[in-house]
Write a structure and sequence with these properties.
Shape: globular
CATH class of the domain at 447-561: Mainly Beta
Largest sheet: 8 strands, antiparallel
Number of strands: 19
Strand content: 15-25%
Number of helices: 18
Strand order of the largest sheet: 4-3-2-1-6-7-8-9
CATH architecture of the domain at 447-561: Sandwich
Distance between the termini: 40 Å
CATH topology of the domain at 447-561: Immunoglobulin-like
Structural class: alpha+beta
Helix content: 40-55%
Length: 620
């Protein structure tokens, strides 16, 4: 009852004003978001067109998972191998002519994407993690502006939904206008027909984009304020237990990838592996994600957890068995980006995105043209009814001078355009300065090896990052040289004082590449000696001293090379990435500027007509 009263209180005139206000003040931001999301739907295909390393010829043979893994281990022995992706899944939906990919983390910290032939396993090349696909997806996610960008972007989904609904309630005869586009009736009629037709054809699509965008907002709020894992987190098995780890040798060597794939697909009928997430610790499982015939869910929704030592399936996560919030959270992406139905659906989403982007801009301009038409009609009545009327200058042949005072309602459009252009420039710079650096590494010399240690069955290089001194924030790293994943229970850095006091800190992260950040206690502790201490799951303990003098020498060398804290190196980004990003920002900026000029011209014409009306003593 209360809701119906509210809806009845909104007349079509009020709804039209709200619809126009939203277009004028929020329209440009909506346009930027919609057009970036539109390009994001085909960003993988743009990468395919521009990068030969991504192109392969499809073959009717099994995916060479084992060969790909073996070649990666051999080609990048010092890198952390994160995953293997066939790149034919619900997240990318790129098809059989795309190379497989693997993400690796270099010792410098840079994440790179390696492209492989999925049928032979041969490496075709590697490149930065930041490719065309990543630029558009990250930009459409948060404008490369962190959490603030996520909220700015997702909040606009509310305005988009309200704008779509008000437009639907204002305009009538929707079915009659599905194909109505009058090309010879003037600009106002053309824009009116185009805006209405675009709105009709993209109505369901716009509602879908708005609703899924609102879900992204809800997901962000949940992750920031509530217990995200309890509500949206996906079920996982418990870690490998202590008893099993005691039986494993001091180094866990992975089985051939084909063994894990066979086990997963054999145990989960109808399941097809499309990504393998490799364990980084000995108590983690090999995670194989893919599809079970329901393309509306992301691959990670269906995951088989396989024991890395025995290839035994220990847990199966199926989309059909998830709770409603978890399931919704994993169908939003395929629906939002059209990655659930192959290339045809992605092209359809791209076209609908273009139509929606055009509709947003055309609607606001149409609002001004409609206002100018009313003024022109009033001026015609002035000419006919005024007995003392002399020749009146045709307002279409002359335009009032451009000034802030005579822009009238276009002042809001100018302010909105200025804000959006500034934000577009700011986020563009952030994309290069911050976005590129997120996945880039530090320069050579930023990390140095302190010493190498034989800890029982393991050989470990101990390293430190700039400035390499025992103070708060310094990063100490380890790099195990043993083949496979080292099977230790704990690894500690321990300091001893002359009085016999000790302070200890555990290494965390990947078992093969552990690290720690020194706390303030280390800076305040009077250390006389340092030790690296390792313990296995059978209670055996090994320790070796770390040379304090070597740390001091490294510190002096680093300060000589880097008087100030060195910044991360930009990743080796190919020129095509800059070209595509530059064309996109130039296209969007130019469109906004042209749109603003058109609105300002229409507003100035309104201002002149108002002045002419007042000279003839006609009330406006």
């Amino acid at each position: 009852m209360f809701l119906s009263r509210i809806l009845k209180s909104f007349t079509k005139k009020k709804l039209f004003k709200i619809h126009g206000w939203l277009g004028l003040n929020i329209g440009l931001l909506l346009f930027v978001i919609c057009i970036s999301g539109t390009f994001a739907t085909l960003s993988n295909e743009i990468d395919w067109l521009l990068n030969p390393d991504v192109q392969v010829k499809g073959k009717a043979v099994p995916i060479a998972w084992s060969s790909m893994h073996e070649n990666l281990v051999q080609a990048y022995p010092d890198a952390q191998l994160i995953n293997l992706m066939e790149q034919k899944n619900s997240f990318t939906e790129v098809g059989d002519y795309f190379a497989a990919a693997a993400l690796i983390k270099e010792p410098s910290g840079e994440i790179r994407k390696v492209h492989l032939d999925p049928y032979s396993g041969l490496i075709k090349g590697d490149g930065p993690f930041l490719d065309v696909q990543r630029i558009f997806r990250s930009y459409n996610h948060n404008f490369f502006d962190g959490s603030r960008g996520v909220y700015v972007l997702t909040l606009t989904s509310l305005f988009l939904l309200f704008s779509v609904l008000t437009g639907f309630m204002v305009y009538g005869s929707w079915l009659k206008n599905l194909f109505k586009l009058r090309l010879t009736k003037g600009s106002r009629v053309l824009f009116s027909d185009a805006h209405r037709m675009a709105g009709i054809w993209s109505l369901l699509f716009a509602i879908l984009i708005a609703v899924t965008g609102i879900w992204y907002l809800a997901e962000k709020i949940i992750s920031d304020t509530w217990k995200h894992q309890e509500i949206l987190g996906l079920p996982k098995p418990k870690k490998i237990g202590m008893g099993e780890l005691q039986k494993i040798d001091h180094s866990l060597e992975l089985l051939p990838m084909s063994a894990y794939v066979f086990a997963a697909e054999n145990e989960f009928q109808g399941f097809r592996v499309e990504e393998i997430l490799l364990p980084q610790k000995t108590y983690e499982y090999v995670e194989l994600s893919g599809q079970d015939g329901n393309p509306l869910t992301r691959d990670r929704t269906n995951t088989v957890f396989v024991h890395p030592h025995t290839a035994e399936v220990v847990f199966i996560r199926k989309a059909a068995e998830l709770k409603t919030p978890q399931l919704i959270n994993n169908i939003v992406d395929p629906l939002h980006f059209g990655t659930f139905g192959g290339l045809g659906v992605k092209f359809l989403w791209f076209l609908f995105g273009l139509v929606l982007s055009f509709s947003i801009l055309a609607g606001t301009y149409l609002w001004y043209l409609r206002h100018s038409r009313k003024l022109n009609s009033k001026m015609q009545r002035v000419r006919k009814t005024s007995k003392e009327a002399g020749p009146i200058e045709d307002s279409r042949l002359s335009v009032a001078g451009i000034s802030w005072a005579n822009m009238g309602r276009a002042q809001g459009a100018v302010i909105s355009a200025s804000i959006v252009l500034f934000y577009l420039l700011y986020t563009g710079i952030s994309t290069v300065q911050d976005g590129f650096r997120i996945w880039s590494g530090y320069p050579e010399g930023y990390t140095a090896t302190i010493s190498t240690h034989n800890l029982g069955p393991w050989e470990l290089d101990v390293k430190c990052d700039y400035p390499c001194r025992m103070e708060e924030g310094t990063v100490i790293k380890g790099s195990f040289k043993s083949k496979g994943i080292p099977n230790y229970k704990s690894l500690h850095l321990r300091a001893l004082s002359n009085s016999g006091d000790t302070i200890s800190m555990a290494f965390k992260g990947s078992s093969s590449f552990p690290k720690l950040n020194l706390s303030r206690e280390w800076e305040e502790f009077s250390s006389a000696s340092l030790q690296i201490v390792a313990e296995d799951y059978n209670g055996n303990v090994w320790s070796e001293p770390v040379d304090y003098k070597q740390i001091s020498n490294i510190n002096k060398k680093m300060l000589g090379q880097f008087p100030f804290a060195p910044e991360k190196n930009y990743p080796d980004v190919p020129e095509r990435i800059y070209v595509v990003a530059g064309i996109f920002w130039l296209l969007v900026s130019t469109t906004i500027i042209v749109w603003t000029i058109m609105i300002v011209r229409a507003a100035i014409k309104d201002y002149r007509l108002i002045n002419l009306s007042s000279k003839k003593s006609i009330e406006y």
